[in-house]
Structures are given as structure tokens and as C-alpha cells.
Fold:
Amino acid sequence: MSKFIIKPISPFDFDLTLGVYGGFRTQSVDLYSRGQFERVLPVEARYYLVTASSTGTVENPEVTVSASPPPAKKGAVEELVDKMKWMMGADLDMTVFYEHAKKVDPILFQITQRLYGLKPPRTPTVFEALIIAITEQQTALAVASELRGRLVKRYGESIHIKEGRYYQFPIPESLAGADPKEIRKLGFSFRKALCMVEAAQKVKSGEIELEALRSASLETILEKLTQVKGIGRWTVEYMMCRGMGRYNVLPANDAGLKAAVSKFYKIGRGVTEGDARRALEQMGEFRGHAALYLIFAYALEKYDLDPRVARRQLELY
DNA sequence: AGCCAGGTTTAAT
DNA sequence: ATTAAACATGGC
Structure:
């Protein structure tokens, strides 16, 4: 089996970054456990199981990646590695964000140092980020994760490899042909089911070109996507952060973010979307990073699950 | 038990 | 312009 080395820009904490996927009972597409990340990725109509683990340190990061079955063509290998680099944010230099926070926001700066090396995990396609966002509207992440697992098993292609079945995230064509009533049966509200199907249909038909919108303005993307019933401002902003790497937008109506702003900036209960926007105004183009760090810091304290701790225990063992 | 959880829409003031 | 209710479900 062929192995490939990725050297992300330092600092990078592999377990802290990819560990987000290991936090819930149900894992369906992104699989993380004990320092190892796995996921199915498509290249030229073929599916590969990609496995990644850290072989470096936070300061001197190195990630070793292998693919199964071993890709025959060199081009396929490069594409898989590029996708992994994108998902891990290998190209991102977080120190620029840290320095900006240090200048304008001492509270946030302290949090960035606690989560040193955390990078925003990205989805391989914008469509995946959009569907994830819809599933996570007004519901606990654990619930969304569970229901999404059912969605993936029902509508995602799977491959059998290494004595296991691995699922690919559903493609637009698959969800576009789905019956909303069937999606409703998985546990989603009927309105969310309709929303997912309508979005998938518009992507399939080319009415919405998600990948082409990567460089479009927030206003343009909002205008285009909010035509789909069930997609609002938060969904678009979240999708832009997770799927497009657009960190100058702030998913301000995020329940986790509002809770974090309430806690760390010592604003009383009932923090509004506007409060969150004002609190992070000075972060400018790094607003998305700021949101991620605040949400993470809040979640780590609340749920007491730091992937780094689990990893260290593994190393001691 | 009941309320909240990475919201959005519709239909009321 | 604001505000309330409805929507599904799992966890605490």
C-alpha cells in the first residue's frame, strides 16, 4: 500500500482538528478514532478509502496518508492528497489569525492559545457542507449526527473494503431523486426533507452552481440560495465557512456561538445574533476562525471531551 | 416531564 | 419592524 506525506503549515494539531468527527456516537462519513482518520473520497468515478494519521508534532506537523485500493494513476493520487490537504486546512497559516486576535481581542487571544494548532475542518464539496448545515438547523449536534448517519446509509454510495462497508456522502443526483416522505421517515422534519431535496435538485439542474459560487460575494450567494425554502442566512454562512473556506463570514445566529459569546464575553443570558456580530466585529476577515475557536472552547469545557487528552492517554498506554 | 439544541418560515401585531 | 408558533428528535 502506497503512503504519502503531507506537511501542513505549522502549527497544526491533527487530533484537535480531526477529532471533531469522533465526538459523537454515530460516525458515518468522516471516521476518527484514536488518532486515525478515515473517509471515502471519489476520484474519476472511483472510490478510495483514505486513511490519515499524524506522524509529526503540532509545531512540526506531518500527516501520513494512504489510499485503498492503491490508485493506479499518479493523477488520482495527487487529487486524493489535494482533497485531504483541503479538508485539513494544510494551506492555512493560523498564526496570522492569532496575531490579529492578540492585537484586538485579549479574551479571544487567550482562547486561541488554549486551542493552539486547531484548524477549521472543511468538507470536500460545497454541497456536503450545505446539506450538513441544513441537518444541523435548530437541533442538537448529536441529533443531527445521528439522523445524518441514517441519511448517508440510505442515499450514499458505499464501497466494501478492508472487510468493512464505507459510505460516501450522498451526491446531489441521489438526493434530488429522493422522496421527501422517505427522508421524513429517517427522522428529519418534513420541511427539512423538502429543503434538502429542493436544494439538491437545483444543484443537479445547474440552476445553482455551488462550486462556481466559491468566489462569489456573500450577498450573491445569499440571494441565490435563500430562494430555496428552508435555507436562511445562518445556513449560507455556515456553508461558506465549512465548505468554501470563506472565513470572513460569521454564522452569527449559531446557538453554540451565542452560548460561547455569553460565557466568554460575560454578556448575560439571551445573547442575540446582533450581540455575537458586534462582539466579533473587530476580527474582520478572521470572523469565521473566531467563531470556530469560541464554539470549540465552549464545547470542550461543556462536554469535557478533548481529543488531545484521548490521544495522550493512547500514547502513554 | 419538559426544555433546549450550530434556524427558518409564516402569520400574526 | 418585531414577535410567536410550528417543526422532529435525542439528551439531560
Observations:
- Residues 123-244 of chain A form a domain with the Endonuclease III; domain 1 fold (CATH 1.10.340.30).
